Amino acid sequence: ESAALALQGGTVIGSARCKSFRTREGRLQAAFNLVQRGITNLCVIGGDGSLTGANLFREEWSGLLEELAQKGKIDAEAVKKYAYLNIVGMVGSIDNDFCGTDMTIGTDSALHRIIEVVDAIMTTAQSHQRTFVLEVMGRHCGYLALVSALACGADWVFIPEYPPEEGWEDSMCVKLSE
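^ that's the sequence the OP posted. Answer follows.
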């Protein structure tokens, strides 16, 4: 079962950063919830949004505790006891666009899924003598597109880091006709 989980794409528990956490009021509630449960250590696994939100939460932490104390939700002893919030951030992005690691969490399973899909449609494309255009995830990072194009033998690939030149359509049509 653990091997099957490792190949399962996307978040297994279906989580995402909640909309209310984007507001100070939402982060204030989150701080209160952590203090109520005695939690001072967080491990945040996510992409740019989750890690940016975790960093903002860390920056605001002492101010959030002070505000909770001013509102009478926690006492001065709790402010002292929970003065430090330790956060470990793990890049859970599929983009593989983070320095200091060979491959971010999620990249391998995303690439695996892309190759499975290409393998599944290749026979259809060949039997009907058709060309298929696939779009892969990656937002502003072309790593998955580039690596999957290499792995699958794509004839053409577009990546955000290297936008196509003027007249690319004609060049692509010539290449595909060959």
